């Protein structure tokens, strides 16, 4: 049986519908004729090999994410996950996984949880609270990855999380921004150990 890895991508949240509309109006898309840059999240198969099954749920409304919608969608994958699954979340995906796992019980054993640049607070129902402290009792291996120069999610958010989940290993960078680079060897190494 292949190892399983579930990757939950990031997204945007807004305090109001008007703020979302303003975001859409101001958002600049890239040139569709240019190839998009590959990021580490697109390269699991290359890094991990054929012994891994990579599951990438396309979470609903990622441009205007709502926690309850993501929860419903994520739970649809539960019947397909087996024990010893590895979960990886980036940005809002990391916040979602931390929030979901600290409040819910899952029917499978989680081998490891990797939270990359997670936000502590948010809107749209996203946000962490003191229940996060239960995460260390539910998941044996938790890793927090954050760069001090992240301009989208403050590094201090991971420090807050680490204070509530001291069992987690905090991996700090100084020059990775919001962790959108093509390579992420530190993550890949921990996934396979």
Termini separation (Å)? 17 Å
- For the residues shown, what is the average pLDDT? 94
Count of DSSP H/I helices: 7
Helix content: 25-40%
* Strands, total number: 6
Low-confidence segments, given as residue ranges, are: none
Radius of gyration: 16 Å
H and E order:
EHHEHEHEHEHEH
Which structural class do the helices and strands define?
A: alpha/beta
Widest sheet: strand ordering:
2-1-3-4-5-6
- β content, as a range? 15-25%
Report the biggest beta sheet as strand number plus sense, adding barrel if it closes: 6 strands, parallel
Question: What is the secondary structure topology, with strand pairs?
Answer:
Layout: E1 3-8, H1 17-26, H2 44-48, E2 52-55, H3 67-75, E3 85-90, H4 92-103, E4 110-116, H5 135-138, E5 142-147, H6 155-164, E6 169-173, H7 185-192
Parallel strand pairs: 1-2, 1-3, 3-4, 4-5, 5-6
Walkthrough of the structure:
The relative contact order is 0.17. The protein has 7 helices and 6 strands. It has a domain at 7-13 and 41-57 and 67-87 and 112-128 and 138-180. The model has no long low-confidence stretch (mean pLDDT 94). The protein is 30% helix and 18% strand. It is α/β, with parallel strands linked by helices. α5 (135-138) links the parallel β4 and β5.
């Amino acid at each position: 049986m292949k190892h399983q890895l579930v990757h939950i991508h990031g997204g945007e949240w807004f305090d109001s519908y008007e703020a979302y509309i303003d975001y859409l109006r101001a958002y600049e898309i890239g040139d569709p004729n240019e190839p998009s840059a590959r990021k580490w999240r697109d390269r699991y198969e290359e890094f991990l090999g054929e012994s891994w099954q990579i599951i990438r749920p396309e979470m609903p409304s990622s441009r205007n994410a709502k926690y309850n919608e993501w929860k419903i969608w994520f739970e649809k994958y539960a019947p397909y996950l087996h024990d010893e699954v590895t979960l990886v979340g980036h940005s809002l995906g990391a916040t979602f996984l931390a929030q979901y796992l600290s409040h819910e019980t899952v029917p499978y054993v989680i081998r490891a949880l990797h939270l990359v640049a997670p936000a502590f607070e948010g809107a749209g129902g996203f946000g962490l609270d003191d229940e996060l402290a239960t995460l260390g009792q539910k998941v044996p291996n938790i890793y927090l990855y954050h760069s001090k120069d992240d301009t989208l999610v403050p590094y201090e958010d991971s420090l807050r999380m680490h204070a509530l989940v001291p069992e987690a290993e905090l991996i700090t960078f100084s020059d990775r921004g919001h962790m959108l680079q093509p390579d992420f060897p530190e993550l890949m190494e921990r996934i396979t150990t």
